[in-house]
Specification:
Layout lengths: L5 E3 L8 E3 L5 H6 L1 H9 L3 E3 L8 E3 L12 H9 L16 H22 L3
Antiparallel strand pairs: 1-4, 2-3
């Protein structure tokens, strides 16, 4: 991936983590020990988007403030030989790269479906 700028992670707001419980309003009011652990961060997990780094790569297009899609970074990691332009969001990829990305995702979805079917 080429060097570029970064933006605050939109998933965790830059904290690098989030709680893994959902709505805990009733639990916090009913159990003071749980409330203490919850407020101390005992139920926090790392952010799945920034992986605790607090920031994500930003699209290299000067007029765009969108973060680079996780899918592009993931595909760059598994397809080491293919030079994905992973410094741009999907909308700013050339139609050729968009088609290649769509084909790759369709292939991976088919492989996963076959795996689940026992093929």
């Amino acid at each position: 991936m080429t060097k570029g700028s970064f933006t605050v992670c939109p998933s965790c707001g830059g904290s690098g983590y989030h709680d893994n419980l959902g709505d805990v309003t009733d639990l916090v009011s009913e159990d003071p020990d749980f409330a203490e652990d919850y407020m101390a961060g005992a139920y926090n997990v790392g952010c799945p988007r920034c992986h605790g780094r607090n920031v994500v790569p930003q699209c290299a297009e000067p007029t765009c403030s969108e973060p680079v899609e996780d899918e592009l970074l993931w595909l760059e990691a598994i397809d080491g030989g293919i030079d994905w332009p992973a410094d741009k969001c999907y909308e700013h990829l050339s139609p050729m790269y968009q088609a290649q990305l769509d084909d790759r995702w369709n292939y991976l979805a088919e492989v996963e479906a076959e795996r689940r079917a026992g093929c």
